[in-house]
């Protein structure tokens, strides 16, 4: 597939898949069938800007496999979005859903845009028009979107409204990550960040790290900020936080409440006075017990993997560690990796809960949501650790293998039609 195969993020997802497929000794035919995305959709999205002129944006949706149920995954608004990145993220969603036992194939969508440069009205028109363009390809039992980088509950509310207006009835189950007032689930907004901190805390227990471990978080969006609050609540000390502009570092510990208030008021961490302002590159190599990359892909590379000074790498982002960095970390053997498809799975797990609640019109309490979430995460984490131990592989290969194997088996038992 030309265009895709030249994209470095897609190449990275393929490299990871190939390593796991080698390990599982999947025959060539089944390998090809499992690896390549089923549907790649590209649309043009014309939007009337506030100036009155019309601008055309590019929108994408990749549905990776349809073997186990509808496809599921977020919608990203970011300037770097392209079909290759979206296809890689869709692939990771497939292994993530399979690993934690959700009846979904993976999907991901995106629009190439800078959400920080769009007004609220422009964002709404862009979202609604993208949803319109996607109507032939989505549905509660076909493909269900959710928030990702640059999108949020409001985006999902506009999508749900646009779709519902088209079909002539309220259809909450068309998206997840909606506001609770229109069929969203309690706990969905916090679920990814809380899942990350829950697993990091379990890993810290296994490694017998101190209760007041030092934490560094790169990315202060929905995932990073909730993980910061949650890890601080477990008793850890947050010593560094980064965003697009740079990072705030304070070896004595940061006050997350005032830092978050500053971030929300100014839209950046820059200017916060109770810490040193450093670069994101420097942030990642400061000494700490728990490092959480919670932003874009490919931030841990062959350039900094040898310099990391953390004990746990809890991957809140999708694809933060390149295969070259993985090779270095495997050699070092002193960094305990909680791989992305496990570490950040809390988001899609609670999305699944939201979808189930919407389909049944029967809503759960927050306690029920988190109780069920932590059970699934605990079980999946234990399975990954067991697989890694029995097969003598690293955590990433173990997690990917478990996910990929489930998809391969499902395809095999369903057979090939015609
Ligand atoms: N965008 C999130 C992820 O990458 C959540 C997807 C979802 O909830 O469907 O896992």
What's the arrangement of secondary structure elements?
Elements: H1 8-24, H2 28-35, E1 39-48, E2 54-63, E3 71-78, H3 83-99, E4 105-112, H4 120-134, E5 143-147, H5 153-167, H6 188-206, E6 214-218, H7 222-233, E7 237-243, E8 246-249, H8 256-266, E9 276-278, H9 280-284, E10 290-293, E11 312-314, H10 323-332, E12 336-338, H11 340-343, H12 346-360, H13 366-391, H14 395-414
The structure holds glutamic acid (GLU).
Question: What key phrases describe this protein's structure?
Answer:
418 residues, alpha/beta, Rossmann fold, seven-stranded mixed beta sheet, five-stranded mixed beta sheet, 12 strands, 17% strand, globular, binds glutamic acid
Shape: globular
The structural class is alpha/beta
* Strand neighbour order, sheet with most strands: 9-8-7-6-10-11-12
Secondary-structure arrangement, i.e. CATH architecture of the domain at 191-338: 3-Layer(aba) Sandwich
- Which topology of the domain at 191-338 does CATH recognise? Rossmann fold
Described by strand count, sense and barrel closure, the largest sheet is: 7 strands, mixed
Strand content of the residues, in percent?
A: 15-25%
State the end-to-end CA separation: 23 Å
CATH superfamily membership of the domain at 191-338, which one?
Answer: NAD(P)-binding Rossmann-like Domain
Are there runs of 5+ residues with pLDDT below 50, and where? none
Enumerate how many helices there are, as a single number: 14
Order of helices and strands: HHEEEHEHEHHEHEEHEHEEHEHHHH
Bound molecules: glutamic acid
Per DSSP E runs of 2 or more residues, the count of β-strands stands at: 12
The chain-level mean pLDDT equals: 97
Name of the CATH class of the domain at 191-338: Alpha Beta
| Helix content range | 40-55%
**Radius of gyration (Å):** 20 Å
